[in-house]
Amino acid sequence: MQREFAAFHAPVPALLALTRDDQLLWNDILDLKPLAHLAYGRTLLLGDAGHATTPNMGQGAGMAVEDAAVLAQCLAETTDLPAAFRRFEQRRLPRTTRIVRTSWQLGRVGQLENPLVVMLRNTVMRYLPAAVSRSQMAWLYETV
């Protein structure tokens, strides 16, 4: 890590020099293919259990908070748990599926290794107007 981040601005190299190998954590990134269902009778999958995603969009915790808000709304509408859970699934599944798929695609583009393709990607991103990327991601900030 010290070699990889040696050219970073201070204090990154100094902090890494102070970090012992036994202090480093390695956690694999695990994601799930979008599920067809989140509701199974009186059982409901929410948060990472229902839609674990790659970190490329930074939406994992946000989706869990949205899940809680939508679940509260669904439970306020009916005392029938399976019905509330089905309603939750109807409301959440399209959005969580889209986020999982988009995050996976962004990660794939971000991890390209072919130098020519990387140069092309970087050039396109450098000249892409901010308004274009904002409009492409506007759906992400719509209320649930």
Automatic annotation (TrEMBL):
Q: Name one Pfam family in it.
A: FAD_binding_3
User: Does the entry feature the keyword Oxidoreductase, yes or no?
Assistant: yes
| InterPro entries listed in its UniProt record | FAD-bd, FAD-dep_Monooxygenase_BioMet, FAD/NAD-bd_sf
Q: Which GO terms describe its molecular function?
A: FAD binding; monooxygenase activity
User: The organism sits in which domain of life?
Assistant: Bacteria
| Keywords, in A-Z order | Monooxygenase, Oxidoreductase
Residue ranges annotated as transmembrane are none
Q: Can you give the residue ranges of the FAD-binding domain? A: 37-102
Q: What is this protein called?
A: FAD binding domain-containing protein
Q: Name the species this protein comes from.
A: Hymenobacter mucosus
